[in-house]
């Protein structure tokens, strides 16, 4: 019988493959479980030795995965006899941290931050008028009382100002907006040349604007709160741009 013909061979071209790190795989699995609610906030993850046994991964891999989750704000790691990795659900602080890193990493201009605040903060004020609680109003009024004291230092005035703006976001009871406004407010006031901008007249104007907005929030008048906040942040942005020549953002740690 004639020999069988040779098997036809065709060239096979493969592309380079990206193989994920074992620590990323473990971190991704734990992250999804946390976000799905399988591990409620406060849950203690298994000890490191047990995680090594369960996953059959190295101790170095397990530690790196937990460190990834810690940086992302999904676990807190405590040392000591009663320590370990404890689950925490992401909140406004996580958003603020991410936005802060974006601002610093992209070296955004001050005008970018001011324009973003003009787009976001009026919505915060409108929602605050809907959802504010008595304790929210107390925070706003206390911060504005401090702002109205012309004898306090510039630093104290700026901190009270930031407290008031963040307080409006908190009063909206929207974690995402609160996170954004926390990062934006701190970045704007840290990067503005306040000594050349803030005088007694600015303090008085700020107090009056804050009072009218607070009154609208307290009265539950969403339209008025939105309108007054729009006027306030736009006026502030215009005034800052007139005296602020720098374009780079410098945020204090």
TrEMBL record:
Domain HTH gntR-type: 20-90
UniProt cross-references to InterPro entries, sorted A to Z: GntR_C, TF_FadR/GntR_C, Tscrpt_reg_HTH_GntR, WH-like_DNA-bd_sf, WH_DNA-bd_sf
Database matches in CDD domains: WHTH_GntR
A Pfam family per the record: FCD
One MF term in the entry's GO annotations: DNA-binding transcription factor activity
Keywords annotated in UniProt: DNA-binding, Transcription, Transcription regulation
Entry protein name: FadR family transcriptional regulator
Annotated organism of origin: Gordonia desulfuricans
Lineage of producing organism: Bacteria, Bacillati, Actinomycetota, Actinomycetes, Mycobacteriales
């Amino acid at each position: 019988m004639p020999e069988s013909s040779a098997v036809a061979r065709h060239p096979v071209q493969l592309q380079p493959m990206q193989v994920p790190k074992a620590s990323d795989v473990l971190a991704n699995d734990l992250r999804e479980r946390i976000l799905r609610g399988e591990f409620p906030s406060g849950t203690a993850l298994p000890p490191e030795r047990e995680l090594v046994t369960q996953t059959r991964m190295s101790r170095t891999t397990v530690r790196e995965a937990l460190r990834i989750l810690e940086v992302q704000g999904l676990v807190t790691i405590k040392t000591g006899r009663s320590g370990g990795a404890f689950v925490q659900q992401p909140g406004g602080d996580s958003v603020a941290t991410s936005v802060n890193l974006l601002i610093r990493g992209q070296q955004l201009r001050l005008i970018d931050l001011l324009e973003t605040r003009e787009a976001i903060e009026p919505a915060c004020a409108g929602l605050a008028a809907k959802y504010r609680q008595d304790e929210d109003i107390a925070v706003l009024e206390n911060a504005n009382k401090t702002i109205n004291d012309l004898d306090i230092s510039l630093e104290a005035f700026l901190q009270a100002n930031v407290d008031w703006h963040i307080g409006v976001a908190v009063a909206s009871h929207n974690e995402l907006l609160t996170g954004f406004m926390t990062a934006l407010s701190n970045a704007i006031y840290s990067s503005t040349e306040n000594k050349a901008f803030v005088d007694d007249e600015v303090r008085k104007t700020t107090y009056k604007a804050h009072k009218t907005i607070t009154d609208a929030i307290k009265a539950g008048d969403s339209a008025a709160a939105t309108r007054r906040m729009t006027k306030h942040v736009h006026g502030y942005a215009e005034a800052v741009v007139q005296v602020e020549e720098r374009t780079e953002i410098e945020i204090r740690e």
